[in-house]
Structures are given as C-alpha cells and as structure tokens.
Amino acid sequence: MAMDTLFAPPGERWQPVSPRLCQLRRVILAFWTCLLGLAGALAVGLVLGWGYAAAVVAVAAAVLGWGWWVIGRNWRSWGYAERGDDLLVTHGVLFRTLVVVPYGRMQFVDVTAGPAERKFGIAKVQLHTATPATDAEIPGLPPEEAERLRDRLAALGEARAAGL
C-alpha cells in the first residue's frame, strides 16, 4: 500500500480548502517578516553598522521566501471528504495526518472566523468529540461551505448519536 493512500484513501471525493487561506497566511508572514526584519536591520545598523543591517535584511528576505513556499505546500495538503458514516480530514506535508471522525461521536461543531479570516472571506469548522484525539478542524472554508458543513455535520451527528 502506498503512503499516499494511507493519508488520502482513493475513491473519496476530496474537497480542498480555499486558496484565500494561503493568501491570508502569506500576508501575515510578509507583514511580520518585514516588520521584524526592518526593526532588526535598524537596530543592527545603528549598533554595528549598515553593512550588518544589509545582512539582516537578506536573512529576512530568505525567511520570507522559504515561508512563502512552505505555506503553499501546507495549504495544498489540506482536504476533507464526507463519507456515509464519517468525515475524513487530512493535512500536513512533513508530518501527514488523517483524522477520521465518526458522525455518531461528534458532540458539537464550531464555526469561527477572526477579523483577518472575515476580511479574506473564510472560516474554520471545528469538530468536537468526547475524545480530544479525534477532534478535527478544517480551516479556510468559504462561509457558505462552512455553514453547509456545520448544518450537515450537526444533523448527521444527532441522527447517529440517537441510536446510542
């Protein structure tokens, strides 16, 4: 069995998260990298000289480039699939994760969106079960999809738990 099928079983209809999640994370990365890089360059420039400040800016640019690439890879790794009895959520590049949440084990479903997420038009759906190890979250969903998924998962959770 190939490792890819272990974390993303074939035959499922995998849904990706919105590209706006990638954009948001890159904007946050660029903001903090530039802010800290320029502040660090200014401090180093005043204390050690402007030649060293240029090195700090070069390091900040390298961190920004590397982070930009990592965020893109991480964003592409997120996906979810709705099956008859459970929800599959997969993510991760270096450390792959597949969480299988049976609908009957769900206790409640949260939908959250902070100010930055609302500005980018995305939300996060979080599933809570009795066992924290089987909790799952799906970030970067358009509001309509987050609402649809919340309602569907809540209804399925209620229907499956009624038989317990």
Automatic annotation (TrEMBL):
Listed transmembrane segments: 27-46, 52-71
Superkingdom assignment: Bacteria
Domain YdbS-like PH: 75-153
Coiled-coil annotated residue ranges, if any: none
Keywords from the UniProt entry: Membrane, Transmembrane, Transmembrane helix
Protein name: YdbS-like PH domain-containing protein
Taxonomic lineage: Bacteria, Bacillati, Actinomycetota, Actinomycetes, Propionibacteriales
